[in-house]
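Hi D.,

Good news: the full-assembly prediction came through. Inputs first.
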Amino acid sequence: MTDRHDLTPLWEVFIRPRNGLHHRHVGSLHAADSALALQAARDVYTRRGEGNSIWVCRSADIAASDPSFAEANFEPADDKIYRHPTFYDIPDEVGHM
Amino acid sequence: MYSQGLIGADSSTTESEEFLAAFQARIDREEKIEPNDPMPEGYRRTLVRQIGQHAHSEIVGMLPEGNWITRAPSLRRKIALLAKVQDEGGHGLYLYSAAETLGVSREQMTEELLSGKAKYSSIFNYPTPTWADIGAIGWLVDGAAIMNQIPLCRCSFGPYARAMIRVCKEESFHQRQGYEIMMTLARGSEEQKQMAQEALNRWWWPSLMMFGPSDTDSTNSDQSMKWKIKRFSNDELRQKFITATVPQAEYLGLTVPDPDLKWNEETKLYDHGEIDWSEFKAVVSGNGQMNRDRIRDRNQAWDDGAWVREAALANARKRADNQHIAREAAE
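Then the structure:
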């Protein structure tokens, strides 16, 4: 039906629910360019007041970490408990710190 | 809105016992599976097929109701119906995106729908001859779909579960708007009440068939349950739907067209009469009243929209070229 040249690219959609919050990933859609992607994102993802700002970016432009390295990447954080405040003993008399 | 018991998937898989056991252990711990995680081929194939059928059902599901947008009896009914049909289109898009995370392309799924190769829910191959059918679809068809979809929010595959959460959130107005239409008709003139009753007669049995074949004949159920793609069997969901819906029909003063329907004091559920599975099989295999019209209409919409897709892509290419030239000039 279509050759690769005619494929409509995939975009990732991010929406900020209201000022003061981060834009958050909500899903993806196909569109020829960024203007059409924004318009489609408005129709598909904000029909009930879900946000006041939309970002779109080409899915192909996202670099993702490899899930098979998830352990090597993220597990070392588990045994570094000294990075958390509760690791340190401070007497109650000192008060809130 | 409209999932159905999965039609004809092949969940067979060829991975090692060890791999399958490790995967099953993740599922049993209620861990969500994400697109790039290792997964058995059978799991991927079952999901591509189920999510694809579900997406196609949303898209084709716009047609029977679209039939009445221009003839809705008031502006209030018209804006509600427009919003509902627009939601169904949106639901189809969320679901196509979820399927695409498994490596199937949108183009391939579209082609399979247009060529008639892909299945979609049998319910959309029934016609909507009167306005009351729009009420009955919202009440019964969306009602059945909600029963099916709420457990799918806890499906083991992350993107499908997330799409279903959005869908279910948007869905509850659909059923209420349908029931409200039925209520208005049931309280109207004799002719209007008659129209509501006839619509209930038309949609009752096809709605029960939406839950898919009986557990004794459903070949995919066991593996899908084990992988936590589905959480309840077809018959369990069907029974839940009947038990929730019969009192709603009584409230309307309408009669459910099943002479064998009987309250079972022991199970606290309604026992129902025999479902005509030969009708279900005929509709699924392409011989329902509207199968050919639905596919023809989708093909026409696709062909009529071709110039828009081509123009959008040509414009995007031209702009990309211009930017390229401008960048080179600036360097």
